[in-house]
From TrEMBL:
<feature type="region of interest" description="Disordered">
    <location>
        <begin position="43"/>
        <end position="70"/>
    </location>
</feature>
<dbReference type="Pfam" id="PF13810">
    <property type="entry name" value="DUF4185"/>
</dbReference>
<keyword id="KW-0732">Signal</keyword>
<dbReference type="InterPro" id="IPR025442">
    <property type="entry name" value="DUF4185"/>
</dbReference>
<protein>
    <recommendedName>
        <fullName>DUF4185 domain-containing protein</fullName>
    </recommendedName>
</protein>
<feature type="signal peptide">
    <location>
        <begin position="1"/>
        <end position="44"/>
    </location>
</feature>
<feature type="domain" description="DUF4185">
    <location>
        <begin position="67"/>
        <end position="366"/>
    </location>
</feature>
<dbReference type="InterPro" id="IPR006311">
    <property type="entry name" value="TAT_signal"/>
</dbReference>
C-alpha cells in the first residue's frame, strides 16, 4: 500500500509558520492584558443558542513533559500528549511537534513522537520513548515546506493501536491518514487516507469512541481554529477501521435522523480547537477546546446519537495569563485529551500549554465536579 506523498503538501502563501498558525486564536483570545479566570456567568453571557456552560473546578497534578520530565529522551519541547492505553498495560503519550535544544523551533523537529509511562494516573512519569534514549518520529515526515503530522487521536481496540494524523502545513490540512500498531506503538503501518477537503473539510480532525457494540463512533471537524465548522458523527465497525468506505454518516433527512443519511452537524457550528470523544462508564464523554470564548469544555451523554444541542456544556479549563495560574485556570491552554483510566468521579485530561518558546508542554489536570447529566 502506498504511503502518503510528501511532495503534494506545500506551504501556504508566504510559508505560514507553525508559530503563527498554532498560536492564532490563543493570543488574540487572551489579549494584551491580564485576563482573569472566567466565571460561568461570564461564559453564559457570550453563548449562542441558549447554552449556559457550568463552570467547575480542577487541579494541576503535574507536568508530563518538559526539560526535566522528557529532556532525557531528546523531547524537552512537545505538546498534545494524546494518551492511549497500550495492549501491554502501559501508557503511550503521542506528542505533536517536538524539538530538542533550547526551545520551540530548536533542532531535531519530529512529529509525532511516542513517550511511555505506566498507566497509574497517580504516578504518570515518562520513563521511556519509542526510540529509546532518543524519541523518534513515529511515521515518515520530512517537514519539507513546513509540513507536519499532527495527531488528532490515538486509541486501542483489542491488541491493536490506531493513530489518526492531520498532514500538511498546520491548519492547511492536505489530507488526514490512519495508522495501526500491533507492538504497543513501537512501529506503525499505514492504512488509508482521506482528502482534506472531504465533507467541506469537516472530516479533517477526528476522534474515536470505542464502544462495546462492535463500532467506533467518530466525531469530526475542520482542523483550523479560525474557521467555523460543523461537528459530524460517523460510525465504523471496529474490524474495518482502515476502510474509508465503511464509515457511515449520521444525518437528518426526510424528517428523521438515521444512519446512512448525509452527514448533518450534531451541534451548533463553531470554531473548534482539539476534540476528544470517549466511551466512559457506560456513557460518552466529549471534551474540546472552545475558541469563542476561549475555554476547554466537556459534555457527558448517554448515546453517541444524543442531542448535543440540549446536552449541558461544562467548562473544565479557563484561560488566564502567565503568573496567574491556579486551580483550573491555565495560560494559553489547548488539547484536553481524556486519560484512559478516568472515571466521572476521577476525571483526568492532558492539557497543553504554549505561551513562549520555553513554556511549551503537556500537563495532567484532574477535573472536579463533572456532572453526568
Amino acid at each position: 500500500m502506498d504511503r502518503p506523498a510528501q511532495a503534494r503538501r506545500t506551504a501556504g502563501p508566504g510559508g505560514t509558520s507553525r508559530r503563527t498558525a498554532l498560536r492564532a486564536g490563543l493570543g488574540a483570545a487572551l489579549g494584551a492584558g491580564v485576563l482573569p479566570a472566567l466565571s460561568g456567568a461570564a461564559h453564559a453571557a457570550e453563548q449562542p443558542a441558549g447554552q449556559h456552560p457550568r463552570a467547575i473546578g480542577g487541579t494541576k497534578i503535574r507536568n508530563v513533559t518538559g526539560p526535566d520530565e522528557t529532556g532525557q529522551f531528546a523531547a524537552p519541547w512537545t505538546d498534545l500528549g494524546i494518551p492511549a492505553l497500550c495492549p501491554d498495560g502501559s501508557m503511550l503519550h503521542v506528542g505533536g511537534d517536538t524539538f530538542d535544544g533550547g526551545g520551540v523551533g530548536g533542532p531535531d523537529w519530529r512529529a509525532p513522537v511516542g513517550l511511555r509511562s505506566g498507566s497509574d494516573l497517580g504516578s504518570l512519569v515518562v520513563n521511556g520513548s519509542v526510540g529509546g534514549a532518543h524519541a523518534v518520529g513515529l511515521v515518515p515526515e520530512s517537514h519539507e515546506g513546513g509540513t507536519t503530522a499532527i495527531p488528532s487521536d490515538v486509541f486501542t481496540v483489542g491488541d491493536t493501536m490506531y493513530m489518526h494524523l492531520m498532514r500538511g502545513v498546520i491548519f492547511q490540512t492536505h489530507h488526514s491518514d490512519f495508522w495501526r500498531s500491533t507492538d504497543n506503538g513501537e512501529t506503525w503501518e499505514y492504512l488509508c487516507q482521506w482528502p482534506g477537503d472531504l465533507l467541506g473539510g469537516q472530516f479533517q480532525q477526528k476522534s474515536y469512541a470505542v464502544a462495546d457494540d462492535g463500532f467506533c463512533y467518530v466525531l469530526s471537524s475542520v482542523f483550523n481554529r479560525e474557521v467555523p465548522s460543523d461537528l459530524l458523527l460517523h460510525r465504523v465497525p471496529q474490524d474495518r477501521l482502515g476502510e474509508p468506505a465503511a464509515y457511515e454518516p449520521w444525518g437528518f433527512a426526510d424528517g428523521a435522523w438515521a444512519w446512512g443519511n448525509p452527514a448533518t452537524t450534531v451541534t451548533a457550528r463553531r470554531k473548534w480547537g482539539e476534540i476528544c470523544f470517549r466511551a466512559l462508564g457506560g456513557k460518552y464523554a466529549f471534551t474540546w477546546l472552545n475558541m469563542e470564548p476561549l475555554s476547554m469544555r466537556a459534555q457527558v451523554f448517554a448515546s453517541p446519537t444524543s442531542d448535543l444541542t440540549t446536552t449541558p456544556e461544562q467548562t473544565v479549563i479557563v484561560p488566564t495569563t502567565p503568573g496567574n495560574e491556579q486551580g483550573n485556570a491555565v495560560a494559553s491552554p489547548y488539547g484536553g485529551f481524556i486519560y484512559p483510566g478516568s472515571t466521572f468521579d476521577d476525571f483526568h485530561i492532558a492539557v497543553s500549554q504554549w505561551y513562549d518558546d520555553q513554556n511549551y508542554r503537556v500537563m495532567q489536570y484532574r477535573i472536579d465536579g463533572l456532572s453526568q447529566g
